[in-house]
Amino acid sequence: MRITDQELNEFRAEVSAWLRDNAPGDPGFLLPQSFMEVGTDQQFDFLRDWQRKVYEAGYLGLAWPAEYGGGGEDQALQDIATAEMVRQNVPFMTNTIGLNWAGPLILHMGSEAQKQAYIKRILSAEDIWCQGFSEPDHGSDLGNAQLRAIREGDEFVLNGSKIWTSLGAYADFIILLARTDTQTNTKYEGLSYFLAPMKIAGVDPSPIKKLTGEHGFTQTFFNDARISESCLIGEEGGGWQVAMKTLTFERAVSGGQAGGVASMTVSAREVVELARHALRDGRPAIQDPLVRDQLVSFLMEERGMALNNSRAKIPALISERPASIALSRKLTGTEWRRRLNQFAVTLQGANASRYVGDDSAVDGGRWQRGYFQAFSGTIGGGTTQIQKNIVGERVLGLPKQD
Amino acid sequence: MSEQADIIFTDEQQQLLEIAEIFSGNKSPMDAVRRQLEAESSIAPELWREIADLGWLGIAIPEEYGGSGLGLGEVATIVEPMGRNLFSSPLISTTLAAQAILRGGGEQQKSQWLPRLAAGTVAALALTEAHGDWDLTNLTCSATRDGDRLHLSGGKTFVTDAEMADLFLISVELAGEPHVVLVEPSDFGADAMHREIVIDESRRSHALSLDGVSIHLDNLLPSANLHRLHLAACLLYAAEMCGGTAGVINVTVDYLTTRRQFDHFIGAYQALKHPMVDALVGLEQARSHLYHAATVFDMNEGRGEVAVRMAKAQAADAFAFASDRAIQFHGAFGFTYECDAQLYRRRALWCEQQHGDGAHHRKHLAELLLD
Q: Is residue A67 a part of any domain in this protein?
């Protein structure tokens, strides 16, 4: 049955009021900006508690089936709840991989037992999920995954390692791409996909310290770790198709995510506010002509990116190079974010030299950390330089370098 | 942010864009652009007649005055493809003149001039002075009232297509306030006009002496909204620059995909490929700002000012970068007059320096957005 506009408005008001009353205030320590940055027990516990609270209030997984712990409601309601979370800038839902990738995947193609076992506990953050796709020697070449899973009766024995495992130190389960057969025609055919437990013998997540000084992800070693064949999702040998399906959830090409914000956004307006309080020669930095010019440039770019998204929906205005905006979006957005954070650091005068943990650090050092962390965007998922090759070759039609 | 981030592109605009792309491509291929550089006027009279017959000069003029009753957003839509093909014509000045009369003129002035402008009478704008200040209210030219006559004095510069014009809109200071007067060629003395040598050789630019010119008081516009005229000019120049940026990117990509050095097409080298992507990203942002400005300009003037200044600033910087790199990436050929890259670079410099460059508009945006 279709929900009326009035019902939607009432629901929006209800969520809005609940968030105002229940959103956590300043925790007294610096929160991460996304699940990829969770680096301390303090941050993790805080965020896990917050997710559970949102789920128990009924604002997460609203459109997931009720028999597995979801709300069984219309997607429109979840969209409203999520939009309110964005609007009120509340902390993100830390079980991102469970909520947005593993959960939808399990609902889409998991067994009844898997749905019963995992879905509710993903929503409540009782089970934290991580992703085991990348390997140390094959950063972006997923099809070349070498982690071995050898069948022994009704078990698989895992050996090898995965890298850049966000939340690896906290996760209870991992979506894992592993090689079950080395004798296939193509590298893609020998792969299988597992929903594997993390807290078992032979699985050792080893924290990687990032340039921010924090622990954000792990290299995850598997040494004769034994898992049940019931961990398979999809066919044995059909892991590549499952991985590709997962990427459609990750990239939001497929719907069905549980909802909730996945990361905190940064706005040029926040840097404008910073410039009001920073001093230059005894006066607010925002009065400095060079600072003003830079601030306006950042605001223009921010609006330009939003306007690009609007224009990309109008075929007549992208007819010459239809993929141009879509393919350059990652490059444009991540570089803007890196430069914006860098500029925010330089606004602080001598205090720019302070870092997270110092009592006098401006905004708790979030801009310094944000600048370093922004490199995750300009490097991860294909570096800016690779992105420029892609745009240059696929959009402008320039030749590949051989 | 979300409520500002909108672009409306109507069916009329879509049709205008398609027609203007075909028309500009057919009428202004590069050899025609080069031929026209040597000609007396910026555009052949018969081609100007075709533009008038298409109805493009009356797009933003109400139907009661012989136009189509659309807005400047629709004009921007045809200016963009013209800019792409380095088209040069008095379309922008004639459109802006009609806007000034429509917004600030009396009924008699509107009914006298708007139907003629819609039908192809050329109007020239004389707003800039020798000091080069982009502030259009910084006026040294003046008008003095003498009964029902106005005596003008001073000089104007960068009056484009003056030799074709049958009407001049001239800004003057009158009793301490900026005003706009309508002047016809017969009002000028024999030596009032002389051709300027300007960087964009597709333009026909003139200096204009007002000394000794006397006109009837009826030729004073009741209201001179120079601010709106300035913003309208910025919108149309932004459209011309977006088109030019797209054009020069294509010229450069053609060269990078056909020229070989050291056994490779030079476009394979990342030192050239990556800046071309920067140029493309600049263009995409410029077009998005442009069509947003085209959407809100006629809807809401406060919001329109921010949008138009952003569009002008972004397009100026994008066109400057793309055309500068175009020369460099053509190598030794780029250093020659024969290479088309210089035509775009010259066009970009003209458009950037008329009605304010990027830094100038960002300065005004700072006042609107930060204070």
A: yes
Q: Quick one: A285 and A232 in the same domain?
A: no
CB contact under 8 A, B292 and A310: yes
CB contacts under 8 A, A 83-102 vs B, are none
Give pLDDT, residue B3. Answer: 45
Residues 321-350 of A with CB under 8 A from B: 321, 324-325, 328, 331-332
Shortest Cα–Cα distance, A29 to chain B (Å):
29
Q: What is the pLDDT of residues A263-297, one digit of tens each?
A: 777 899 999 999 999 999 999 999 999 999 999 99
Same domain, A325 and A352: yes
Residue A383 and residue A295 share a domain: yes
Asked if A240 and A278 sit in the same domain, the reply is no
Contacts of residue A386, Cβ cutoff 8 Å, sequence gap at least 6: none
In B, which residues are within 8 Å of A321 by CB distance? Answer: 280
Q: Is A273 a catalytic residue?
A: no
A384 touches chain B (CB under 8 A): no
Mutant choice from B245, B288, B369 vs A, greatest count of A C-beta within 10 A: B288
What does the pLDDT look like over B314-337, one tens digit per residue? Answer: 999 999 999 999 999 999 999 999
Asked if residue A206 lies in contact with residue A219, where contact means CB atoms within 8 angstroms, the answer is yes
* pTM as predicted: 0.89
Closest CA of chain A from B14, distance in Å: 7
A31 with A137, same domain: the answer is no
What number is the average pLDDT over the span A100-114? 96
How many Å lie between the alpha carbon of B217 and the closest alpha carbon of chain A? 44
C-alpha span between A236 and A238 (Å, rounded): 5
Name chain B contacts of A325, Cβ cutoff 8 Å.
284
The domain that holds A372 is classified in CATH as: 1.20.140.10
Catalytic residue among A135, A214, A250, A302: A250
More confident residue, B213 or A261: B213
Q: Other C-beta atoms within 10 Å of A150: how many?
A: 15
Q: Does A390 touch chain B (CB under 8 A)?
A: no
Domains of chain B and CATH, by start: 11-122 (1.10.540.10), 125-219 (2.40.110.10), 226-369 (1.20.140.10)
Name the band, by pLDDT with cuts 50, 70 and 90, for residue B300.
Answer: low
Judge if A31 and A84 occupy the same domain: yes
Mean pLDDT of all residues in A350-379: 94
- Do A282 and A221 lie in one domain? The reply is no
Tell me if A109 is assigned to some domain.
Answer: no
CB pair distance less than 8 Å for B267 and A320? no
Q: For residue A205, give its domain range.
A: 129-250
